[in-house]
Amino acid sequence: MSRRARDERRGTVRIDQPRSVGHTVRVPSPETTPVDDALVACADGSPDAFGPVYDALAPTAYGTALGVLRDPDHAAEVTQEVMVEVWQSAAKFDPARASARTWVVTLTRRRAIDRVRAEQSRRDRDQRDVDSTLAARDRDVVSEDVEQRLEGAAVRRCLDSLTGTQREAVVDAYYGGRTYREVAERLGAALPTVKTRIRDGLIRLRDCLGVNRG
Amino acid sequence: MADSTRDAWDLLPAYALDAVDDLERRQVERLLDTDADARRALDEYREVVAAFTVESAPPAAMRDAVMARIAAAPGQARHDDGTPVDGESSAAHDDGTPAGADVVPLDRARRRRWGLVAAAAAAVVAVAVPTTVAIQATIEQNELQQRVDTVAEMMADPSAQLLRSDVTGGGSATVLVAGDDFLFSANDLPDVGADSTYQLWLVGAEGGVTSAGLLDPQEGSVEQLVQDVDGVGLAVSVEPEGGSEQPTTDPVVVLAEG
Fold it and tell me: Which positions in chain A touch B251 (Cβ < 8 Å)?
């Protein structure tokens, strides 16, 4: 980030910056990865600087998009948009708040889920179903798929520490691109119940994965 | 703790999963604006969500498409970006707006830049013609005439666009775009040695690239006419002798329309 941009940013911020406030001082992540550093460097760098960042993070974005969209073409489009966005908004990346990988996952999920919902509402509006790739994909064959995809991932072991209902709710929200309201409808459970399951499920996963940012 | 605040805290995990509706999203973001602890909690939940990611290799052609798009706008959006950025900000604000906000200035910057280039087009093209003719003199006479006609037509096309850029490593390149025809020319290209070659690529609208032939510069200059193709621009990379199916190195120049 250029000094100018940083100063402007300061000027418009209403809230306290995490690192400047006594009792909420953030413990920065113990170390940044080379990818984090490379992404930070992109903020003022030339396009060439983005090559290694692309190589490191595009598979993360594509994998994330594929998880939500389950269609290679849609996933590729979303990934391309996200990677351009990563370059454009590199100055907004704050390594004290997230790893580059987590940041890219966040950006990708947002876009992928927006796309799922846009397709959904278009389908609701227009029964003729012009583009059926997303609309037609079976959003209910989620769970078995997940087991396969997560084979070997750290989160797999941790998922086993969840109760059946927590796990169901989290997985459905994660892969279905659904709101918890839709999850509740689908599972035939009360809204507060599902909200709680998702919350407790994520908290359990957080503790199991040892995620602790201070 | 007020009820609404507690509600927003309860929604943080669902928010991290993008499993909230727009109204709830705003509710959570109000909390995030004022509460550093909530932001930290969110960061942790996001890390949990990211742990679900199983990486997967994207289509190979995407790399060049992305690099071409960012190379086409080296100024980047962030310098005109006056949007307030708090701790939360565009990493995940409402309904994808950050992306839109970023894309708009990018397009504007690109148009502005190429507008300037277009203004200078007449002069550069006037220089380009004799070069074309000189090089084409080595090919069959009728083919030459055809090409000259094509180039003349291209230059007469009011919608023709001239894109110009420096080449990484040295030299400069120009492409005249008229409809489905591209006239590429480059000057002062450094010698890449016997084991390597310059290769010209057609960049498709979807980001894919296809070879538009090898370039054999004479004293650093080369021209190539690419006709009747569907693409948004051209790129050049340095490839191993004989060329490649798909680029194996980063482009040394990308000349592409939005």
Answer: none
pTM over 0.90: no
Q: Are A107 and B91 in contact (CB under 8 A)?
A: yes
Written out in words, the top-level CATH class of the domain with range A1-137 is: mainly alpha
pLDDT digits (tens, 9 = 90+) for B87-134: 334 333 433 333 333 333 333 333 333 333 333 333 333 333 333 433
The ipTM assigned to this model is 0.79
Question: For the domain with range A139-214, which CATH number is right: 3.40.50.300, 1.10.10.10, 1.10.357.10, 3.20.20.70?
Answer: 1.10.10.10
Q: Between chains, do B49 and A109 touch, taking CB under 8 Å as contact?
A: yes
- For chain A, the domains span 1-137, 139-214
Domain residue spans in chain B? 1-56, 116-256
Which of A15, A55, A150 lies closest to B54 in CB terms? A150
Distance CA A207, CA A192 (A): 22
Q: Which of A48, A178, A199 sits opposite B250 (nearest CB)?
A: A48
The percent of residues in chain B predicted with pLDDT above 70, rounded, is 67
B166 forms bridges with which residues in the sheet? B172
Residue A80 tokens read as 């391309």
Out of A109-123, B87-101, B159-173, least confident range: B87-101
- The answer to whether the CB of B50 falls within 8 A of the CB of A205 is no
B219–chain A nearest CA distance, Å: 27
Provide the token pair at A96: 């004290």
